[in-house]
Specification:
Blueprint: H1 3-16, E1 33-38, H2 49-58, H3 89-95, E2 99-107, H4 111-115, H5 133-137, H6 143-149, E3 155-159, H7 190-196, E4 203-206, H8 209-213, E5 222-226, H9 246-257, E6 264-269, H10 272-278, H11 282-302, E7 309-313, E8 320-322, E9 349-354, E10 381-384, E11 395-400, E12 409-412, H12 415-424, E13 459-463, H13 476-479
Parallel strand pairs: 1-12, 2-3, 2-6, 3-5, 4-5, 6-13, 7-13, 9-10
Antiparallel strand pairs: 1-11, 7-11, 8-9
Length: about 475
């Protein structure tokens, strides 16, 4: 969700409400503290979700395609991850006694959610079936198995059923679809194992809207909700009778987690924003971003600003452009009123590369009679690639709540994790916290006129569309503006 996506989604939100769109105010627009994050990884100028998520969740920059490990780990080389694991702010929060959760529109094993709990030399090791024999022999384990083993996560919501069940296991929703069958070769049913691990607790596993709606947050200790074999459906194609929206899943997660008097950490990811951009489908990407904005609004509605830090950011951007001279109020998915030098029209939104590159006889396609506002339209791109790549410009970081001022300015992406940890009094350095290391922070700002901390400092991190943190004590003031990529 780069700046272009952010701006275009704002306009779409307004236009869906029969307004011109440009003047629309997104919930994200109301965040008073705004900064930028530099998204490069240790080895690439333009990074992927694995490296960027490790930066902003674990506080350590790393290499492309690796999750929850530092840069000494090499992509796909199992033995290099040993001893180079890093933990995430989700783990820091759990160790401090807070409840923790992940909500995503992708599979829960995807790069961003995986970074909160897993350590893997490859982001693609979703199940043991995705791992090379050598990696398994050297002792590496798949991301799905680490979901159960590494950190006790209270709420897990997303997709990814097929990575949790034995090979050939029929999917409950798509029993006749071979591609939806279980993939695991080790014979383990991780869903059953997860339920057996929660003896004495109220632990609910659900895979459809009916059962999800029946989950009572007040009486539920743990929730695992996996609504699809892989990633969830795009919001524009979601069946509300089968799958809840990201607004519904965010609300359920918060209501379960906020029962903890010590507070909570929640990662909410609109991960399919990214996947729609890869497919060159601006309609889908923008509708996903609007849906995420409504989830952020729900999060703010359910929490108190004086005790909850909310951070909204992208992990990286895409080669997505907003161009031409469209008239005020013109559809964001429409065409520029001025034609190009080849006397053919072009859309306001386009891609620098991607599957939308089309030339016939050396000419661009004539789209005068093409409806570019449909959900299936693929925007034109300048360079033919099977999938649109990422782009490398800085991304916006928006924050509100206690210590939100820490996120202003231009910072290295891995600074974000340290700033969140500092604000919540979790992680390595808690010298500034009340009682010399207690997990209850003291705030003497206008957020709390009494000048003392509330009983709970919940931490809600809504991150768009993405693990052991450093063991050294890091004060955010010292980190601000510094290169802390090593």
């Amino acid at each position: 969700m780069g700046i272009t996506t952010y701006t275009a989604a704002r306009i779409l939100k307004g236009q869906l409400q029969n307004q011109t769109g440009e003047e629309t105010v997104m919930t994200m627009d109301t965040f008073p503290n705004v900064g930028l994050a530099k998204t490069y990884s240790v080895d690439f100028q333009i990074a992927d979700s694995a490296a960027t998520a490790t930066a902003y969740l674990c506080g350590v920059k790393t290499n492309l395609n690796t999750v929850g490990v530092n840069a000494a780990a090499r992509n796909g080389v199992c033995k290099t991850q040993m001893g180079n694991e890093v933990t995430s702010i989700l783990k820091w929060a759990k160790d401090a006694g807070k409840s923790v959760g992940i909500v995503t529109t992708t599979r829960v094993q995807h790069a961003t959610p995986a970074t909160t709990y897993a350590h893997s030399a490859s982001r693609k090791w979703y199940s043991d079936a995705d791992m090379p024999a050598g990696a398994k022999k050297e002792g590496c384990t798949d991301i799905s198995s680490q979901l159960l083993k590494n950190t006790d996560i209270d709420v897990i919501i997303g997709g990814g059923r097929k990575y949790m069940t034995p090979q050939g296991t029929k999917d409950p929703e798509y029993p006749m679809d071979f591609s939806s069958n279980g993939k695991r070769r080790d014979g383990r049913n991780l869903i059953d194992e997860w339920q057996k691990m929660k003896v004495g607790k109220v632990a609910r596993y659900v895979w459809n809207q009916t059962d999800f709606s029946a989950v009572d947050p007040e009486s539920t200790d743990y929730l695992m909700a996996l609504f699809e074999p892989g990633d969830l459906r795009f919001e524009a194609e979601r069946d509300p009778n089968m799958d809840p929206s990201i607004v519904e899943t965010t609300e359920k997660a918060i209501r379960i987690l906020q029962k903890n008097p010590k507070g909570f950490f929640l990662l909410v990811e609109g991960g399919r924003i990214d996947q729609a951009h890869h497919a060159g489908r601006a309609y889908m990407a923008l509708h996903e971003a609007v849906a995420l904005n409504y989830a952020i609004a729900k999060g703010l509605e359910l929490t108190e600003e004086h005790e909850t830090l909310t951070v909204v950011m992208a992990d990286h951007s895409h080669p997505f452009t907003f161009n031409g001279y469209p008239f005020r109020g013109q559809s964001i998915l429409g065409k520029s009123p001025l034609w190009a030098a080849d006397m053919l029209p072009y859309t306001t939104l386009m891609y620098g590369n991607g599957p939308g590159h089309k030339l016939t006889g050396g000419k661009r396609p004539d789209i005068r009679d093409v409806d570019t506002k449909t959900k299936d339209y693929v925007q034109l791109s300048a360079v033919p690639t099977e999938s649109a790549t990422h782009s490398g410009e800085d991304v916006a970081v928006l924050a509100r709540g206690p210590m939100a001022h820490l996120f202003q300015g231009v910072n290295e992406q891995n600074y974000i994790a340290h700033a969140m940890g500092y604000a919540a009094c979790v992680g390595a350095d808690q010298r500034h916290c009340q009682g010399g290391g207690q997990t209850q922070p003291t705030y003497t700002s206008d957020f709390n006129a009494a000048g003392s901390a509330k009983g709970s400092a919940a931490l809600l991190s809504s991150l768009l569309g993405l693990l052991l943190g450093p063991h050294t004590a890091c004060w955010p003031e010292a980190l601000r503006g510094q290169d802390v990529s090593s």
